[in-house]
Amino acid sequence: MRIVTIFLDASYLLALYNEDDLFHKQALAVRGKIESDEYGQMLTSDDVFDEVLSVALRKFGKEKAQIFGKQILNSIFIVHGGKHIFNAACEIFNNSKYNFSFTDCTSQAIMKMAQIDYIATFDKEFDNINVKVIS
Q1: Per-residue confidence band for 24, with pLDDT thresholds at 50, 70 and 90
Q2: How far apart are CA 15 and CA 13, in angstroms?
Q3: Which CATH number does the domain housing residue 101 bear?
């Protein structure tokens, strides 16, 4: 039996934790659906964690970035990529006709390997691949 899981992208996490984000209200609605267990277990990657903290540090300062980091670490399972995921992400990056960041390619590699059907994101590029975007 396959476990239902949802991958959390940086755009979703940043919108969720930043009340001034354009997508904050949508992110709260998505969080409500996720917390009702509609999409199963939440997970993200160490690359997404890096992206969220880097953006938060640049936009909001270290204190807010640390708060975001603690919230993620305390509530979301984080997949740590290894060589296999890195190689799969390189393959996606090199062969995709879309302009995904390398982090997005790593997310796709993890989702494919773990057979994850859902992604919480506000990144419209994900509409172009075989995954159900929750936004």
Answers
A1: very high
A2: 5
A3: 3.40.50.1010
Binning pLDDT at 50, 70 and 90, where does residue 101 land? very high
**Maximum C-alpha span of the chain:** 44
**Element spanning 134, H or E:** strand 132-134
Q: How far apart are CA 49 and CA 63, in angstroms?
A: 16
> In which domain, by residue range, is 111 found?
5-134
Identity of residue 53: L
Domain tally, the chain? 1
pTM, rounded to two decimals = 0.91
User: With 90 as the cut, is the pLDDT of residue 91 above it?
Assistant: yes
Residue type, 108: Q
- In the numeric block, the tokens 């992206």 are attached to 51
Closest of 13, 39, 41, 43 to residue 28, by C-alpha: 13
